[in-house]
Amino acid sequence: MKILIIQTGGTIDKDYPKTTNGYAFEIDQPAVLRVLEQVAPGFEYECIELMKKDSLDITEADRKLLRKTIISAEATKILITHGSDTMPETASFLNNIQGKTIVLTGAYRPERFANSDAAFNIGVAIGSLNTLEQGTFIAMNGLVFPANRVRKNSVTGKFEYQ
Predict the structure, then answer these.
(1) Is this model's pTM higher than 0.85 or not?
(2) Fewest CB atoms within 10 A around its CB: which of 44, 45, 102, 115?
């Protein structure tokens, strides 16, 4: 199995600013690559740095580019790292792509932080790609949700079935 990993940005990839007097985090290299380096995975993967945006800044044009990238890819197993705020909207936009298994994941705290949920969410997402049939899903909070049955609870910040 070969997994295509697509970075779109979000908290999972955020790092401390590299500019002087920087206050905001910036989106860095794909966190998933650092996670996979530590675990010696038993599968092949390729990573595309498609965009480095906070999910609140992802546009319709960005989603169209993501969709086009997925459709044109040879891989049938796709992992997308994405910010959690608009992850359900992107998953819904990608939901009817045929012949692919697509899992979106992210993190509430940057992977660079010791108490990050990034590695856990990436592991759940990759495990899901091994077992799910075609379709689009979100892997967050130790659960996997179909794209058309998920929402982010605005009070708790957690993903849940709708």
Answers:
(1) yes
(2) 115
